[in-house]
Amino acid sequence: MHTETTIAPVPVWTNEALCAQTGAEFFFPEPGSSVRDAKRICALCPIRPACLEYALANDERFGVWGGLSEKERLALRRGTR
């Protein structure tokens, strides 16, 4: 039995994202590490709203997306933020 994995196309806005010009270690830190640096970079990024929208629409569960951590995105989805 052969199963195919489909990969969603990379959104065009990622070309302008500051995270694309920075190391992934800021946005996907080791458990227990600070996300402060990632949030600082996100705060300066012109496409932060599109990034957050993408993360919420695609249920991204890891890393910092659109300036929010996993826990912050979960709280936003649940309406507790």
UniProtKB/TrEMBL annotation:
Gene Ontology molecular functions: 4 iron, 4 sulfur cluster binding; dinitrosyl-iron complex binding; DNA binding; metal ion binding; protein-disulfide reductase [NAD(P)H] activity
Positions with a binding annotation for [4Fe-4S] cluster: 19, 42, 45, 51
Cofactor binding remark: Binds 1 [4Fe-4S] cluster per subunit. Following nitrosylation of the [4Fe-4S] cluster binds 1 [4Fe-8(NO)] cluster per subunit.
Major location category of this protein: cytoplasm
All copies of domain 4Fe-4S Wbl-type, residue ranges: 18-75
InterPro entries xrefs: 4FE4S_WBL, Whib
Transmembrane segments: none
BP GO annotations: cell redox homeostasis; negative regulation of DNA-templated transcription
Record keywords, A-Z: 4Fe-4S, Cytoplasm, Disulfide bond, DNA-binding, Iron, Iron-sulfur, Metal-binding, Transcription, Transcription regulation
PTM notes: Upon Fe-S cluster removal intramolecular disulfide bonds are formed. The Fe-S cluster can be nitrosylated by nitric oxide (NO).
Compartment(s) of residence: Cytoplasm
Family affiliation: Belongs to the WhiB family.
Protein's name according to its UniProt entry: Transcriptional regulator WhiB
Lineage: Bacteria, Bacillati, Actinomycetota, Actinomycetes, Kitasatosporales
